[in-house]
Amino acid sequence: MSEPQPIAMAEEPSTGQTVETAEEEYGRNYELLMQALEVAVRKGANKWTAKDFKGCFPTISSSSEERSRVFDEIWARTAANMREMVMKQAQQLLEHYNTGPALLQFHHTIQKAREAKKEDEVNGWPERLRADAWRPDLTPQALMAAHNLPQYDAVFERLRTEYLELTKESQTLYEEVKRKQDLVKQLEQEIGTASQQLEDTVQALETHPTDEMHLWMEQVHTTVPDKS
């Protein structure tokens, strides 16, 4: 039986930016980038052929034509899913790094430079060719800021949320500490009162006529008749 040829994957709509809308939104450069990306992903997904897949299960896949066809279908779906997943992750990276807007601004800058050069040549000023006029919003610093500021905003919001949570937790802990401080203060007052009472008792005992009490107790003991 002849070996099955790799099955071409059915074209599936991308989940993110499509090639058809790329040029309309971000220009020709972004369209070429998306086309190259899709070609690379398609070739990468097809590099693992149905023959390679069947080679992992040679006994089952070669037992009948029906099973061979089932393995072809499984391979085709797997390759399509692989392509879709890689394209989705690649487009997420392109969006994360603002690739489309950056390429569009780059394209506009090149166009303006070409127009300026053409204008100088038409006006016959070859010795006074104007240097490229970089607008402030097209500098690398501006592009970097356009990418970083949303990241800073996200970090600021996260830190703000954490700060509010920590503030609330700190307030709760402060109230707990304050309650314990009040309890300790109350205990100190009670201990002070008890200490004062103890000191008063000691002073009263020190001023008590101990010798006279001992003499009286001896007299009472000797005057009590023996009832035995």
From TrEMBL:
- Keywords, A to Z? Cell cycle, Cell division, Centromere, Chromosome, Coiled coil, Kinetochore, Mitosis, Nucleus
InterPro entries cross-referenced by the UniProt entry: PMF1/Nnf1
Task: Read off the PANTHER family from this record.
Answer: POLYAMINE-MODULATED FACTOR 1 (PTHR15459)
Protein location: Chromosome, Centromere, Kinetochore; Nucleus
Gene Ontology cellular component list: MIS12/MIND type complex; nucleus
Q: List the residue ranges forming a coiled coil, or say none.
A: 156-204
The name this protein carries in UniProt is Uncharacterized protein
Pfam families per record: Nnf1 (PF03980)
One annotated GO biological process = cell division
Disordered: region residues:
1-20
Span-the-membrane segments of this chain are none
